[in-house]
Amino acid sequence: MPGPHPVEGSVGVSGMSTCLEGLKEAHGRPWPKELIALGPEESAQQMVLRRIQELSDSDQQDPFMLADLDILASRHQAFCQALPQVSPFYAVKCNSSPWVLRVLAALGTGFDCASQVELEQVLGLGVAPSRIIYANPCKPASHIRYAARHGVQLLTFDSEEELTKVAQHHPGARLLLRLRTQDSQSIFPLSTKFGASLEACGHLLTSARDLGLAVVGASFHVGSNCQTPQSFTQAIADCRCVFEMGRGAGHDMSCLDIGGGFPGTEDSGPKFEEMARVISAALAQDFPEERGVKVIAEPGRFYMESVCTAAVNIIAKKAVLEPGGSRKLMYYLNDGHYGSFRLGHREPVPRVPIVVKEFCSEPPLFPCTLYGPTCDASDRLFLEDVRLPELDVGDWLVFPSMGAYTSSMSCSFNGFLPATICYTMGPQLRSLLEAEPESRVG
Fold it and tell me: Can you give the residue ranges of the Orn/DAP/Arg decarboxylase 2 C-terminal domain (predicted)?
């Protein structure tokens, strides 16, 4: 496992950043204090170092997260370039920050919502209902009624019971039949909970027709952080069979949702470009463009993971001797499993943080257990140890690529509040957000 990478240079960074307080949007609302405008020579990493210095000089060494919204815009561009035939519908559950959603609305993405609250968030930005898919196959009746009242028509289902609810509460819905996939190789598989078997699809399509419901296509999800791009190939081929069954049952099948599962970083596992090539080839074979099928996807991790950097402080420390006399360190941090590291237990390889400390020479490394701040003994960042130098109480660790499923899953267990979040934005993105809303929402 690689050792730490100390941040080079002084933590004290001079710069020209300006808080955008008082600057008005086209909507007439002020830009919030947590939004920082970067100058031409500034970077988000410099802002992380500056914030660490500010907190180190104060009485509150609280954890924080910095989100670089320019990276979010670049990820959207990368997705559209790699998969030009696929319309992205961002998975709101991945990170539902108002600034994230506002930027994506300005960039023209659609949105994948899973609840009434998420629908309210997106609709509240002025996003048209046609740019939303309510992609939870098992929905509360009250949430279905909310979608119907507000014009959100595209819904997913995977059971006869769900069809009955939709027929009662949203008969005008346009439905996608969610298909079960082989996702056992994904880091976070989903098919044990959602998706109909291919064998059950014919009956479900007939039931929908008999209830007077319109099925307009099929959807699937290969699991979050998919490790096998070929999972898309089989799922897309299965959806072609569903389309044929749907047309045989009298449905106008015109929409394919290939879900999410795209990697957030390229540190391990398949690269996004490789996955995009596999998907493009499968679509060309089973859903060629001349057939006029609209293809959408639900990227979340791909958009958000590299956007955020987390900074945590060592609040306590213990040194213990292992059997055989080897030395081990235990660091207690001010953020953990109940905060930004909820998914750390499920990641196959622990993340090695950047150490914000200068050393005169290459320091020796020790096995280190990273614990969170609560009184729960299972509150540790990762199940495995990482190798770090000996550090002191008050030192800082920085974890890049922490934007996916972190802030959205944080809670305040034991009274430890989630990490605060600051946002940075460059001049080009600021200009886009200052544009008239009618030019970007519709």
Answer: 306-403
**Distance between CA atoms of 3 and 362, rounded to whole angstroms?**
10
pLDDT at res. 95: 96
> In the prediction, which pLDDT does 19 show?
33
Determine whether 303 is exposed, middle or buried from the number of CB atoms within 10 Å of its CB (0-12, 13-18, 19+).
buried
Task: Report in angstroms the alpha-carbon separations of 173 from 69, 113, 345.
Answer: 34, 15, 39
Crossing angle of helices 198-210/230-248, nearest 10°? Answer: 40
Sign, Cα dihedral of 418, 419, 420, 426: negative
For residue 109, give the DSSP letter: -
> Quick check: 333 and 373 in contact, CB under 8 A?
yes
Q: Distance between CA 348 and CA 338 in Å, rounded?
A: 19
Chain centroid to CA 129: 21
* Backbone angle region of 224, left / alpha / beta, with phi > 0 → left and psi within -120 to 50 → alpha: beta
What whole-number distance in Å separates Cα of residue 353 and Cα of residue 313? 12
In three-state secondary structure terms, 405 is coil
Q: How many CB atoms lie within 10 A of CB 353?
A: 23
Give Cβ neighbours of residue 56 (< 8 Å, ≥ 6 apart): 11, 394, 396
Alpha-carbon gap, residue 318 to 307, rounded angstroms = 33
Q: How many CB atoms lie within 10 A of CB 247?
A: 12
pLDDT of residue 23: 31
Catalytic site residue from 19, 138, 368, 375: 375
Q: What is the pTM of this model?
A: 0.88
Encode burial over 166-199: b for 16+ CB neighbours within 10 A, e otherwise.
Answer: bbebbeebbbbbbbbbbbeebbebbbeebbbeee
The Cβ-side half-sphere exposure at 237, using a 13 Å CA radius, reads: 10
187-200 tens-digit pLDDT? 655 566 788 999 99
Note the pLDDT tens digit of each residue in 126-159: 999 999 999 999 999 999 999 999 999 999 999 9
**411: annotated active-site residue:** no
Q: Residues of the chain whose pLDDT is less than 70? A: 1-33, 183-192, 223-227, 266-270, 435-442
Distance separating alpha carbons of residues 186 and 407, to the nearest angstrom: 22
CA dihedral 274, 280, 281, 283 (to 10 degrees): 140
